[in-house]
Amino acid sequence: MTLPEKRVQDRRIQKTQRLLREALFSLIHEKDYDAIVVKEILDRANVGRSTFYTHFRDKDELLVSGIHDMLRSVQSAGRPPSTRYEKILWFSLPIFEHISHYRRAGEARIGTRGRAIIHEHLQHVLAELMTDDVRKEFQNRRETPGQVPPDLFVQYLASTFILVLNWWVDSRSPLPPKEVNDVFRALILPTMAAALE
User: Fold this and answer.
1) Where does residue 14 rank: exposed (0-12), middle (13-18), buried (19+ CB within 10 A)?
2) What is the CA radius of gyration of the chain?
């Protein structure tokens, strides 16, 4: 296969995956995530079943792909991290802002169980994204007794983010994204300072 042919094929694959992600996210704003079936995604995206299964195992894998895609676009559009902690936590404000947009628009019809599934996937994606940066930071710290292992620290950061996100959504808190992000940071920055020094 020549290089131009490969680029065309890559663009087709990207377009198909984008159509599938957009279809899933539009359905998420119409009904419970649990109630969405692959056939509805296919119909909405105008994509065949075999094409779907060429790219994704199931709708959960498609969802994770969409989360990764959203975070990649946010990361590439953002400014470079100004502090060592920002290298790890760059995602928090953009996610709060993204969710705030849907809260204000009144489009979130995900349902409690659907939201729990989505947030569980989000937690795993965030843990994956932070792992390398946290390991690099941990390599630079002094050895002391009782140090928190890097993988546990990553899980702590990701689960605390989801805890704050769930509180914000469940309590229908009127706090704007910046202030919720400040709450998240207030909870984790002291622990980060202690763990990374």
Assistant:
1) exposed
2) 19
Determine the distance from the C-alpha atom of residue 53 to the mean position of all C-alpha atoms in its chain, rounded to a whole number.
22
Rounded CA separation 39/49 (Å):
8
Q: How far apart are CA 143 and CA 34, in angstroms?
A: 46
> What is the reported pLDDT for 82?
67
- In this prediction, residue 3 carries a pLDDT of 46
Distance CA 143, CA 10 (A): 46
Here the tokens at position 98 are 């993204």
Query: What CATH number is given for 1-77 in this structure?
Result: 1.10.357.10
Distance CA 11, CA 118 (A): 27
Stretches in the chain below the pLDDT threshold 70? 1-9, 75-82, 102-111, 142, 144
For CATH 1.10.357.10, the residue range(s) in the chain are 1-77
Q: What is the dihedral of CA 37, 42, 43, 48, to 10 degrees?
A: -140
Which residue is it, tokens 């309590």? 171
Q: Note the pLDDT of residue 80.
A: 59
What is the predicted pLDDT for the residue at 86?
A: 85
CA distance 20 to 11: 14
How long, in residues, is the chain?
A: 197
Residue 119 half-sphere exposure toward CB, CA atoms < 13 A = 22
